[in-house]
Amino acid sequence: MRLTKHHGLGNDFxxxxxxxxxxxxxxxxxxxxxxxxxxxxADGVIRATPAxxxxxARVRMELRNADGSPAEMSGNGIRCLGQALVLGWxxxxxxxxxxxxxxxxxxxxxxxxxxxxxxxxLSVAMGPATVEGDAPEWTGGPLTRGLRVDTGNPHIVLExxxxxxxxxxxxxxxxxxxxxEAVNAKVPGGANVHLLTVAAPGIAIRSYxxxxxxxxxxxxxxCASAAAARSWGLVDDPVPVAMPxxxxxxxxxLDARDVVLRGPATYVGAVELGxxxxx
Length: 279
Prior knowledge:
By secondary structure, the protein is α+β, with helices and mostly antiparallel strands. It has helices spanning 27-34, 75-88, 176-186, 219-231, and strands at 2-8, 11-17, 44-50, 59-65, 70-71, 97-102, 105-116, 119-127, 130-134, 143-150, 154-160, 192-199, 202-209, 213-215, 239-243, 246-251, 259-272.
């Protein structure tokens, strides 16, 4: 079995192109592959198989988090898959646009220019970002307000600082791991949690992803946070989103119904897995 490793702004994924659909991906395999010290190491594993009966989609994306749990969608992960398709799936990754079936619906990846020898600029039509309501149970102290946002997967976005968005760094004293674990212990099915502050002309976020933990970037979280920031009147469109791993740009469109996420995907290397020589 051959996998490639990619990252989108430090959010890293192993990608398995499986045109014969001969390599099922279960939770045990995903956990073993993603383990940082005893495996290859990644925030998630993506398996791509041929799409059947799913409209214009040529490929279906299956995503598992580092803990083996399934995830509906990843904005960074699908860009990494787009790069893997360009590099390794003739006839599917050729051309400017690739339609991919995901558990969150159809997504179109648009391949842009090369940003370097191993990096592509890609955009993803992410569908709608739906603000579902306030999340006051997670606010208090420096966390002034919160929203629940759905981008095909669930998010809780929490603003740090004075209401109305005063500029400033995200306070390091907020324990995002403890907060994320508390949210995921209480919210059925879990949720990704983001701390947001204004970083003119856009926003800055830190992210805790369910099934993974702290990540350097979160693509769906960038979209959810941009939608929350616009609903609070903090930003215009498009929205630059600064994350620890780097910057992405979110275009929300009218009423955040046609969100587009733009950012890089970088090829790291290839991994060959086979029968253990010690058996």
